[in-house]
Amino acid sequence: MKDHESPISINTGSGTLAKAIISDRDGHKDIPEGTIFASRIDRLASFILDVILTTTILLFVTRGSIFYIWNLSMWASTDFHYSLLMSFVFFAAHWLYWRLSGVYLSRSIGQKIFGIAVVSDDGSEMTSEMWDRRVLQKLVYLIPIIGWYNGAYDLARISQRHTHQSNIDVKVNTIVVKAYSLPPLYRKHIK
């Protein structure tokens, strides 16, 4: 019997058994106890709200010219450079919005309204480099058809993972949580 491995393992780490299981899976760090993951509906709704907010601001700033990015006849004409320029403005504005709101507020306005926050997978504050990587990958969702497919696929992955992480979250080592569920030490940076 000495040469066989015991089917019973003892949790030697700190915290609960559930926390130990989550920590052991996929190399995730310890998630603060009591943390509630954001639902995919909250995440989708906050994303849509952020896109509507940013696009509405762009609509007024560009006096409606932002719609050139969706005008297929403009893309096919000799004046396609207007559509190209507005595409650059559209993506740059979203990148800037998500990047600055992430770095300075630790979440966007849409995420704040829905009470969610993006934090490192151990519950700590995200670094500026993490925000850069996350926002660049998030811009793909704004590309018609390709982005919508990626977004739908990520929504499905969120419900399949025990940590409710999208593919972007896994790559950047982040989790999206209900902000109020984080311990006070971990949510002091969230505005």
What features would you highlight for this structure?
mainly alpha, two-stranded antiparallel sheet, 2 strands, 191 residues, 5% strand
Report what the structure shows:
The chain is mainly alpha-helical and 191 residues long. It has one domain. It has 9 helices and 2 strands. The chain is elongated and about 75 Å long. It starts with 16 loop residues before the first helix and ends with a helix.
Largest sheet: 2 strands, antiparallel
- Mean pLDDT comes to 81
Shape: elongated
What proportion strand?
5-15%
| Helical/strand content category | mainly alpha
Q: Give the strand order of the largest sheet, numbering strands 1, 2, ... along the chain.
A: 1-2
Uncertain segments: none
Secondary structure tally, helices? 9
The ordered H/E elements are HHHHHEHHHEH
Radius of gyration: 20 Å
Distance between the ends: 57 Å
Briefly summarize what is shown.
It contains nine helices and two strands; from the N terminus they run αααααβαααβα. The protein has helices at 17-24, 40-61, 72-76, 80-105, 109-113, 128-138, 146-160, 167-172, 184-187; strands spanning 116-120, 174-178. The protein has a two-stranded antiparallel sheet with strand order 1-2.
